[in-house]
Amino acid sequence: MALAVDGIIKLRNEISSQRLIGIRTLEVDKIRGSDFISGLHFLRIGSEGIVVFPHKIEEQSMAEHKKNQLSSNIEALDDLLGGGIERGTTTLITGPSGVGKSLLATQFLVSTASSGSSVSIYTFEEPAFSMIERCRSVRMHVDPLIDSGRLQILHINPLEYHPDEFLHIVRKDVEERGIEAIVIDSMRGYQLAMEQFGNIVGHTQNLINYLHGKGVTCFLVNELEQVTGDLKISEIGISYLVDNAILLRYAESGGRIIRVIGCLKKRLGKFQQELRELSITDEGLKVGGMLKGFQGLLTGVPQRMDV
């Protein structure tokens, strides 16, 4: 039979071993006289009919480097980062729960949107209204940006979306809405969406390749399980994929808990190799000067140095 036909398309409907839901896929085995994308392609049947999300491998390329940077609009932070984050690069913001990773990533996008660009936050963990309320609590003015359409906050349920379906959403926003910068919050939620469909590193690489090719700036929010202890940039093996890495850390000083921020990596520019205190206040994020007189800050249990 296979020899007699010009094309063979296989449809599958399998039960996920971890989610106990049906997963429909399409596979092209043969198209005589024509090339095609091999592999399994996610298939969804809904109110819009049959929609296929091809598993396209993005080329590993980077758009021409733009000379200007994205500013956080926090002078001390921009100084730490050598002026800001280069456009079209990918930045990992990593640290334990509650340390301020999401607010920091949002700060960059709010600053970018305030300058006239269109940006998008894809949140895998908390609903959009919760993120908006948190921004309001620190006087981060997101409402006018949302009303104008320059800032989009989209909640992605990781139990519902296939990785290629999510990439389709990103592609559509970039190519139709002109999105210039995005935040993925967080990589834990993204991993939950990916784990049933292959390795998270491979899917993250494919996403970053696409964004690099389009010159889109990306911030990946990554949660570390350990509050103190040995230093790790990432526990899921994606640190080598990113251009920049910003570490947030808790530390104990004089009987109180402080937040510490530092830049560990920046491929396309210089940065200050120092640690500074980060504060979350009613007036927004505040970054202080270099923390002096301590050693072991990155362990979370610093010791005062004799001067």
Secondary structure topology:
Layout lengths: L6 E9 L6 E10 L8 E7 L2 E5 L15 E2 L4 H6 L4 E2 L3 E7 L4 H14 L3 E6 L4 H10 L5 H6 L2 E5 L7 H15 L1 E7 L1 H8 L5 H15 L2 E8 L19 E10 L2 E11 L9 E6 L2 E7 L3 E2 L7 E2 L3
Parallel strand pairs: 7-11, 7-12, 8-9, 8-10, 10-11
Antiparallel strand pairs: 1-2, 2-3, 3-4, 5-6, 12-13, 13-14, 14-15, 16-17
Helix pairs in contact: 5-7
Entry summary:
The protein is α/β, with parallel strands linked by helices and 307 residues long. Helix content is 24%, strand content 35%.
Q: What do you see in this structure?
A:
- The structure is a single chain.
- A hairpin with a 6-residue loop joins strand 1 (7-15) and strand 2 (22-31).
- It is elongated and about 80 Å long.
- Helix 5 runs parallel beside helix 7.
- It is built from seven helices and 17 strands.
- The chain has 307 residues and is an alpha/beta fold.
- Strands 9-8-10-11-7-12-13-14-15 form a nine-stranded mixed beta sheet, sandwiched between helices. Strands 1-2-3-4 form a four-stranded antiparallel beta sheet, covered by helices on one side. It has a two-stranded antiparallel ribbon with strand order 5-6.
- It has helices spanning 75-80, 101-114, 128-137, 143-148, 163-177, 187-194, 200-214; strands at residues 7-15, 22-31, 40-46, 49-53, 69-70, 85-86, 90-96, 118-123, 151-155, 179-185, 217-224, 244-253, 256-266, 276-281, 284-290, 294-295, 303-304.
